């Protein structure tokens, strides 16, 4: 890296915090929580990067335009929406439930929706069908990869029908990369548009 003589290094907290000193010796370094950050953190990161590049005004313009886009998308959600929404990532034998502190959960909140699972931990891993029933979301987005997951097995379980989202026909499969792996302003906008299309038949 030192042979590239960078003017700025942008590092990821979860991967590079331990070598911050080494990176700083090469060039000015900023550490961002882009791996696990919630929506607010990601927005702050955009401003931090813009400032580091000497583009403060441009960064603020980008954020303002994004806020306008999110507000316009949120306006299509019916007022008084009280249904609780959850993103669950399906794995071969269980699910990971994304809470209000996750990126997607905090995007839900920014749109005026109610996350079904509130926690300071972004993800609740290893959730069973019984746990999903206890959380009992009214709207359930299931992020999947190609191939079989617990979702395929649980659909055949009679207890699956006890979840409010199942009874209300409010279960939607979504792309795992877009909903659970990517983070950014465009990703937040994509999540909002996908919600409008799938849940509210709008957009």
Notes on the structure:
With 203 residues, the chain is α/β, with parallel strands linked by helices. The chain contains 10 helices and 8 strands.
Q: What's the total number of strands? A: 8
Average pLDDT reading: 90
Principal-axes shape call: globular
Q: For the record, give the distance between the C-alpha atoms at the N and C termini, rounded to a whole number.
A: 44 Å
Radius of gyration, Cα only, in angstroms? Answer: 19 Å
Short description:
With 203 residues, this protein is an alpha/beta fold.
Please describe the structure with a list of short key phrases separated by commas or semicolons.
alpha/beta, 10 helices, 43% helix, 18% strand, 203 residues
Topology:
Layout: E1 9-12, H1 13-16, H2 20-26, E2 29-32, H3 39-52, H4 56-74, E3 84-90, E4 95-98, H5 103-110, E5 114-115, E6 123-127, H6 129-135, E7 139-144, H7 150-154, H8 164-167, E8 171-175, H9 176-181, H10 185-198
Parallel strand pairs: 1-2, 3-5, 3-7, 7-8
Antiparallel strand pairs: 3-4, 4-6
Helix pairs in contact: 3-4, 4-10
